[in-house]
Amino acid sequence: MSIDELGRAAAADVRRQASIDVDPSAALVDLHRTHRRRTALVVAAAAVVVAVVAGLVARGPWLGQAAQRTPVPAGAPSPSPSAVLCPPGQVCHVPGTRTFSVGLAIPLTLTLPADFSASFGDMRRDTVEFYRTSVSDTGVTVMENPVPARDDYTWTRDPAAGTDARSVAQWLAGRPFLAGTALSPTTVGGRPAWRVTGGLRRGAALTAHKNMLPAAPTFASGGGTAAYWAGLHAEYTLLDAPGGGLVVIWSWTLDHPASELAANRALVAGLVFH
Amino acid sequence: MTNTVEGSDEVRDGLDDVVELRAYEGFDSFYRRELPSLVAFARSLSGSAYADDFAQDAMLAAYRHWDSVGGMDVPAAWVRRVCANRAVSSWRRRSVEARGLLRLRSQPPPRAAAHDEHEAFWAEVRKLPRRQAQAIALHYVFDLGVADIAATLGCAEGTVKAHLFRGRAALAAALGHRNEGES
User: Which ipTM did the prediction report?
Assistant: First the structure.
């Protein structure tokens, strides 16, 4: 067989396989959804710029007037850029900063550490992801009010788990597929939280699938799932949101040493839920 | 966007809406026709589990610029070029792969080819210099000639001939097949 004949046969094969796998109608729906989401981000960013400019104009000449501002009572929230809350489903950026507001069900603001991309991913009503720029396949996923998942393929609530952050953290630390787990107190945006570390136990039963790989399930929300699987190092931070609700922050790195998780902690600690 | 049929009683929203409707229908039709072969192209060039996302990203770019892309003589050439560049760019690959990492509803892992020998062929294509790999993949996956490949990649026909010649020679040597272009 000549190289040309081999090339044509290989091309016919890859075309045939793609025609079997690809559902253009479903993919088209996904494309329109992605386009709407990205357009909303652009509009939201523009709205923030307009709001900030309008605010500056309304204040009038402000150089030298800092001492005349109304005193802020001790303990009251400071009028920082992070107090700008974004509409649901949108991300707002404070121009000239790395401060963002994410319109999740429980509104979130943060200042991105330098090593994180300003291009967020997988944003849904209750989920958003942040990615490291200096190392691939490493990031942080925020899941709001997720369901602690049973150790099977159903991704349904495990009745053995509690509902508040501390009890769910204890449940997570006791998952049978984990080894070397530790539960420690920490803070997220100044609020008390609990961090669960540990790794997949050698020989553990992987009862679910994620990204077509056998996986040990941990949490499921309307928008996504979290799990352990081979090659993935992870740690979780859980907290009770203001006004109620559970927030799970999943820090992960795939096919890299677990030490990469340390740099994710700067982002996790700076997340502020409102 | 409602699925209004042009000419039906529902098309009463004025000229602007009709124009917009036609533009959208044009893209959707283009998308359905071109996506499978574009995915095949992305798989052959990237070999990544996220090759389908490269094709989708290229299509999204076409959708955003459909006012101009849709008016081109060969819109498919534009989207193939975008896809070709994304599939061989390591920076863009990392970005797309990171975005795809945690998807809930992932598709079955795409395979570049079912046959071991075909898989090996594409693996060797991916080792070629960037432009050679793109020219070879365009030639075989879309069955394009030299002129069409040159138009797609935005280079001279002579350059494409050189890429195809060198690429085939390298593939033949690596895979132990005869290269008829050299005989």
Answer: 0.77
